[in-house]
Amino acid sequence: MTVENTGNKLRRFSFKELQVATRNFDHEKKLGHGAFGPVYRGHLADGSLVAVKRSQELSEKSEKQFQTEVEVAGIVHHPNLLSLIGYCDEKKERLLVYPFMVNRSLDLLLKQRDVRQLDWPIRMRIALGVARGLAHMHDQCHPSIIHHDVSCSNILLNAEFEPVLGDFGLARIMHKRDVVVGGTEGSIGLCSVSTAEVGKYPPSLPISPRRCQDTYVNTAVRAHLGYIAPEYARTGKCTLKADVYLYGNMLLELISGQRIFFERVGRVVDPTLQGNYPAEEAEQLIRLALLCTDDDSSVRPKMSEVVMMLENRLHELDPSSRSSWCRSEGDSTPYYSFPPSPSLEMALKR
């Protein structure tokens, strides 16, 4: 395949180089396994520690994910977005090489339940860092990019526990021109999707041709239902606000320490914190998460607004003061407000 010139200085590795770096993809070097394929820890000849993603099979789907990762690497340049060092595209091999993140993924740390690694200040740092990365993709990249797969498993942590959002294989590069997407396969600019997985989801999802502007119309809903924005589940139409919804889900998991859709969350705030967090700040963070996950996409804030609130430490800039987030001009009740709950109040006062 031909990798498009991204304008970024990516290194093109030989397959032999990456075989040596990972000791021929030794099982003991395996870090995990994602949708693209297994991930291995490796040492390059210059001593650099890297993570190597190897496609488990060469298919139309993996080829598109590979191409998207490389192309997005030429657009995104931000401390909170995972940089791509290089790639290998020899024959049927497709590999991606990234810096190794010492503290692995947020998902793994939450499962370990070790409050020494995820105290409240670190959780706030993660919330802000991921928000900054997404805001950069949405507002500073030209064209804008929808990450499309924001989750705890795709948030990596460096040695200082600074978050780095990665895995751009499902990203959508948006264009401000009208594009017709239809049939069983659609594309916008540099990105395209197939319906290989459409059978896993409700057959009522529309796959008819659509016209879209600043919107990506996907003919196959790829993410887990419940972890995607409701409007995307209904229509297959993905916008920047779908990322905001996923970010809100991530916030709820970061706060509670639990998977929000597949486990019953007994307490709002992670009990492993043992009450060592500012209750007012925790409450505002919960409210922000609920705002981001509002069913009405027009109510959700932009990621740049989320960054603004978090940079002001939440309680210094109360989201309820934003009249644009209220139901109507005559109703000052914010969309994200919810009735008092004894269990919520108890969790916040722990």
Descriptors:
single chain; 350 residues; Phosphorylase Kinase, domain 1; Transferase(Phosphotransferase), domain 1; 2 domains; 6-stranded mixed β-sheet; globular; disordered C terminus
Shape designation: globular
CATH level-1 class of the largest domain: Mainly Alpha
Question: Under the CATH scheme, which architecture of the largest domain would be assigned?
Answer: Orthogonal Bundle
What series of H and E elements makes up the topology?
EHEEEHEEHHEEEEEEEEEHEHHHEEH
**In whole angstroms, how far apart are the ends?**
56 Å
What is the gyration radius calculated from CA atoms?
Answer: 21 Å
Estimated helix fraction: 25-40%
| Poorly predicted residue ranges | 1-7, 177-225, 262-266, 320-350
Mean pLDDT: 76
CATH domain fold name of the largest domain: Transferase(Phosphotransferase), domain 1
Strand order of the largest sheet: 1-5-6-4-3-2
At the fourth level of CATH, the homologous superfamily of the largest domain is Transferase(Phosphotransferase) domain 1
Beta strand %? 15-25%
Number of domains: 2
Largest sheet: 6 strands, mixed
Structural class: alpha+beta
What would you note in describing this structure?
The chain is an alpha+beta fold and 350 residues long. It folds into two domains: 11-99, Phosphorylase Kinase, domain 1 (2-Layer Sandwich), CATH 3.30.200.20; 106-171 and 240-348, Transferase(Phosphotransferase), domain 1 (Orthogonal Bundle), CATH 1.10.510. It is 29% helix and 17% strand. The strands form seven sheets. A six-stranded mixed beta sheet has the order 1-5-6-4-3-2, with helices on both faces. Strands 7-10 form a two-stranded antiparallel ribbon. A two-stranded antiparallel sheet has the order 8-9. Strand 5 (86-88) and strand 6 form a beta hairpin. Helix 4 runs antiparallel to helix 6 and helix 6 (240-256) runs antiparallel to helix 7. 41% of the residues are buried.
